[in-house]
Design a protein that fits this description.
Blueprint (H helix, E strand, L loop, with lengths): L8 H27 L6 H13 L4 H5 L10 H9 L3 E5 L7 E5 L1 H24 L2 H15 L3 H9 L15
Antiparallel strand pairs: 1-2
Helix pairs in contact: 1-5, 2-5
């Protein structure tokens, strides 16, 4: 007796693909709910996260660190400048360049953002063991290997494994 379609390798990979899409969709929904009271989109929140860790940065450097927003983040940054959350300051060494940094209002909102996303992280920690997080992270790095977004993730999280065979315990 042969295995039915639900047991074929193709079906297993299709299920995996849809599980990844479903997890991304559910994660985006939960993140959107957490950000709604702060008046931020996930992409805007990511800019605040990145600037919290890496400011001041140029627009190009910011773009290399953003996972949610591919391409030039100029419109995204402009929306945050208009809300007085991000400021543009002249680069001291390169007069043609502009650096981006959080304003006091941006710093305050970034702190609130940390609290909101911290609740999501706590929920994940309650659901997954540290070893599961490490395994899932390693597997997702493997799936993304060789893509532009894999490099963006490595730029953003350089302490994370860079190869498909590296395993680190989640902290």
């Amino acid at each position: 007796m042969t295995a039915g379609p639900s047991h074929s390798p193709r079906a297993a990979l299709d299920e995996l693909r849809y599980l990844l899409l479903a997890a991304q969709r559910e994660g985006s929904r939960r993140l959107g709910e957490a950000l709604r009271p702060l008046g931020l989109t996930p992409s805007q929140a990511e800019v605040l996260d990145v600037l919290t860790e890496h400011q001041p940065v140029t627009l190009a450097a910011l773009g290399r660190l953003l996972v949610c927003e591919q391409g030039s983040p100029s419109r995204l940054v402009e929306s945050l400048v208009q809300r007085d959350l991000v400021s543009r300051v002249p680069h001291e060494q390169d007069k043609r360049a502009v650096l981006l940094e959080l304003t006091p209002a941006g710093q305050s909102l970034a702190a609130q953002l940390g609290e909101a996303t911290g609740r999501l992280t706590t929920t994940m920690a309650e659901t997954l063991k540290a070893a599961d997080v490490a395994t899932l992270t390693r597997l997702l790095h493997t799936l993304l290997e060789g893509t532009d977004i894999a490099q963006t993730v490595r730029n953003r999280f350089p302490e994370r494994p860079s190869g498909p065979h590296d395993v680190r315990a989640a902290t």
